[in-house]
Specification:
Elements (H helix, E strand, L loop, with lengths): L1 E5 L2 E4 L2 E4 L8 E4 L8 E9 L7 E9 L7 E9 L4 E8 L2 E9 L7 E9 L2 E6 L2 E7 L8 E6 L8 E9 L5
Length: 171
C-alpha cells in the first residue's frame, strides 16, 4: 500500500489518530495492484468527544480536475455532533450529500463503518447492518481508498483501527 496524501495524522498504538484538521480530505491510500472498482473499505472508528467532525472511509477517490489539491470520490462518514452516518460524493471541492442515516454515536465506543461500491450501487454499513443504499454513476473507476475527514476542527479526537479493503479481484 502506498501513501497518497497525508497530513495531521499519526500512528498511535497501531491506530491512525487525527491530530489536527484543516477541513480538507487529508489522508488517502491506494493499492497499486487494485484492478476492480468494485470493492469495500472498512474501518473501526472511535470518537473521544462529540464535537462536530466528519470522519470515515473513502473509495474511488481521484485528484480534483479543478486544479486544486482537493480529492474527488465517495466518502462514508460518521458524525458524532449531528449523530448520523452519511454518504457524500466530492466533486472539485464541493460536497454533495447522497443520504444520511440518523443514529446514536457515543464517545469511547468502537463503531465499524464500511463503504461498499459495486457498479453504480453504493452501500454504507454501520456495525455490520446496511443503513444506506444509493445509486450514483459519477465515479466508476478504481481510484484510491483510505481514511478521510471533512470538517475543519482542530480540537477533535478520533481514531481509525482495523482498516480493511475487500474485493473479489484485488490483485
Amino acid at each position: 500500500m502506498e501513501r497518497y496524501t497525508a497530513s495531521n495524522y499519526q500512528i498511535v498504538s497501531n491506530k491512525i489518530k487525527l491530530t489536527s484538521n484543516d477541513g480538507n480530505i487529508t489522508a488517502a491510500y491506494r493499492l497499486n495492484a487494485l484492478v476492480s472498482p468494485d470493492y469495500s473499505v472498512q474501518a473501526t472508528l472511535n470518537f473521544s468527544s462529540l464535537s462536530p467532525l466528519y470522519a470515515g472511509v473513502g473509495g474511488r477517490m481521484t485528484n480534483s480536475t479543478s486544479g486544486t489539491s482537493e480529492i474527488n470520490g465517495y466518502m462514508a462518514f460518521a458524525e458524532p455532533g449531528s449523530q448520523g452516518v452519511y454518504i457524500f460524493k466530492r466533486i472539485d471541492g464541493g460536497w454533495f450529500l447522497l443520504e444520511v442515516y440518523p443514529t446514536q454515536i457515543l464517545v469511547n465506543t468502537n463503531y465499524i463503518l464500511r463503504l461498499s461500491m459495486n457498479g453504480t450501487n453504493l452501500q454504507v454499513y454501520w456495525n455490520g447492518a446496511q443503513v444506506i443504499s444509493v445509486t450514483d454513476a459519477t465515479y466508476t473507476a478504481t481510484g484510491y481508498t483510505g481514511v478521510v475527514t471533512g470538517t475543519a476542527n482542530s480540537s477533535i479526537a478520533v481514531t481509525w483501527d482495523d482498516f480493511t479493503l475487500t474485493s473479489p479481484t484485488l490483485f
